[in-house]
Amino acid sequence: MGGIASVLHGVVVYGLFLGAFLYAVAFVGNLPVPKTIDSGQAGPLGTALIVNIVLLGLFAVQHSVMARPAFKRWWTRLVPKSVERTTYLLFASLALVLLYWQWRAMPQAVWTVRNPLGVLAFWATPSMTMGHLLFAVATTGYILIGIHLEERDLIASFGDQYRRYRQQVSMIVPWPRRKAA
User: Are 47 and 124 in contact (CB under 8 A)?
Assistant: First the structure.
């Protein structure tokens, strides 16, 4: 019976994750969904900034803390190891759904690029609003912090083997480094 419950849990959670992920594309791209990054009535900028930072922070903390090996060891004392990953995805998806639902519009323009070639230089959006800028800065910062945490965990797990790999392959884009002549 536990196996059936685990499979059912996995199907429901991965379905929710897929929906949350696809909604993220529409949310950030201002595609036709009920709520996007720039839709809704704009309120006071300060309030929107605080609420949105808290929402982004909640996702980042949940996502990072639950991904750490020490948390996983503690967490699997409370939930079966077979559902640890899907439970992590459940909380991550719920944090995203909360973000979409409670996001405050910040539609003030930061820049507008009319030349399509200029898009690549500015986080791939021709119209950068305050909301997009906050989202881009926060997610970029989160990714950089996440890389640091993941690197630390990989060194703890693989030691010198991973250190040697880091010397051979660059960090963000894993291209092989040139050997010194």
Answer: no
In the chain, where the domains are located? 2-168
Contact 42, 105 (CB under 8 A): yes
Specify whether the CB–CB gap between 80 and 161 falls below 8 A.
no
d(CA 31, CA 125): 13
Secondary structure of residue 169 in the 3-state scheme? strand
Q: Is 92 exposed, middle or buried (0-12, 13-18, 19+ CB in 10 A)?
A: buried
Q: Give me 114's structure tokens.
A: 């009319």
| Side chain identity, residue 94 | L
Cα 161 to Cα 13, 26, 165, 170, 174: the distances in Å are: 35, 41, 6, 15, 16
pLDDT digits (tens, 9 = 90+) for 16-68: 999 999 999 999 988 999 999 999 889 999 999 999 999 999 999 999 999 99
Q: Model's pTM, two decimal places? A: 0.80
